[in-house]
Amino acid sequence: MSSESDTPRWREDFPVEWEADHYVTRRELAKFMVLGSVLLAGASVVVAALGRAARRVATALRVRIAGASAVPAGGSLLFNYPSEKDPCILIRTRDGQLRAYSQVCTHLSCAVVYKPEAEGFFCPCHHGWFSAVDGRPTAGPPTRSLPRVRIEEQGGDVFAVAEEP
Amino acid sequence: METRKQGLPLITAITVLIGTLVIIQLWIMAVTIDGLMGGDEHIAWPAAVVQVVLAAVNGGLLYYVLAYDRRLRRLARRRDE
Asked: Interface pTM (ipTM) of the complex?
């Protein structure tokens, strides 16, 4: 003697009828995709919040780089900002302007080097070039500008005060 | 009156729609992370809002499917009685 409650669970999950079997499968797929959708939305909110928090930390940091006289015209100096894992480069252009940028190439993250004769940054990995005036890519594969580091001169010292996109 | 025959194309269409929205969400996520890596965090919050809206739409579609399913079961039970 059997009743509906006696039906084993596997029979519910794998019905004999072809049509019912597909119906259940699609419903489960829809549930799975909605779960993924909700997780993606949550991840986006977390990413946005972390991005804002990181920006706040970056803009709140004021770090001494070096004495202003440590970088001659056409020279460069490496430093790390905002964390020890973020290599940056401070340069003094041939006309005497101090500028600082991230040293990480926006193409595939190689370290760029300053070329004063070309007034630009050169990435030796894939021959990319960036302008030393504003960090914009001028040649090669990079498509995004080098992030600029805002600097201030105070009492003969140079300070990194914020990282700009 | 709902029937299982109507339900099959309905759930197929809704599953395809949910899948399309999830793919759009994945694309938005990729663009957001790309922007953040490039230092452009202005896109992050609008993207997060759109993601939440799309997830809510997906949730609504799933709710509709489950409600449809419940109605079918109820109808079938009534028919059996």
From this structure: 0.87
